[in-house]
Design a protein that fits this description.
single chain; mainly alpha; Arc Repressor Mutant, subunit A; Tetracycline Repressor, domain 2; 10 helices
């Protein structure tokens, strides 16, 4: 799905404030549509109508659908981390990790287990089709894992986690618990799988406390 529109993304920082606002409105509309109905099920015309822009405006910022999809990936990565930032910055303690777990579960419960993860949904649809999209999604997940890793590392440096605790592996396990748990919760319309996955990993982390 790589296309000439990627060139336009490189000059996004040169936009006027009005141009940036228009571009952001297009990406936000596309992100909502692609989350609700999938990338394949979302046309540029759908985005144009939802963002209330003309065709010429849309193509001014995005030369093709691929460049818009890549912008949506970056947008969703920022959005997920932004929404979780108050909890991610407190992952350096077991109470902080459990508070983050409660936030993730309560968010899914509030949505009635619909939709799942905004990044994960894109990954399931695009990873095997678009190498550039896969790389962007992997980078978004790595930012998320990095926040988990930083919290656990801080605990270890303070002596609250055993010195032999494998921090990268634990952070990856937490991420896998979230993604797998969200997928099962979506399929079963029940947060129980998400809670079980997260609680199992967090209980293991608790068993490694010094």
């Amino acid at each position: 799905m790589a296309g000439t529109g990627s060139v336009r993304l490189q000059i996004a920082g040169e936009l006027t404030s009005k141009g940036r606002a228009t571009r952001d409105r297009i990406v936000a509309a596309a992100a909502d549509l692609m989350f609700e109905q999938g990338v394949a099920g979302t046309s540029l015309q759908d985005v144009q109508q939802a963002a209330r822009v003309s065709g010429s405006q849309l193509y001014h910022y995005f030369g093709d659908k691929a460049s818009l999809v890549h912008a949506v990936i970056a947008w969703q990565g920022d959005a997920v981390l932004g929404h979780q930032r108050p909890w991610l910055c407190r992952l350096d303690s077991l109470p902080g990790i459990r508070a983050w777990r409660d936030y993730v579960v309560s968010t899914m419960r509030r949505r009635e287990c619909r939709g799942g993860c905004h990044i994960g949904s894109l990954a399931s649809e695009l990873s095997d089709l678009d190498p550039a999209a896969r790389a962007g999604l992997a980078a978004a997940f790595e930012r998320w894992i990095s926040a988990l890793r930083d919290g656990l590392q801080a605990m270890q440096e303070r002596g609250e986690l055993r010195a032999d605790a494998d921090i990268p592996r634990l952070a990856c396990a937490l991420m896998a618990a979230v993604e797998g748990g969200l997928l099962l919760a979506k399929a079963q319309r029940d947060t129980a799988p998400l809670e079980a996955a997260l609680d199992t990993v967090i209980d293991h982390i608790a068993s490694l406390t010094a």
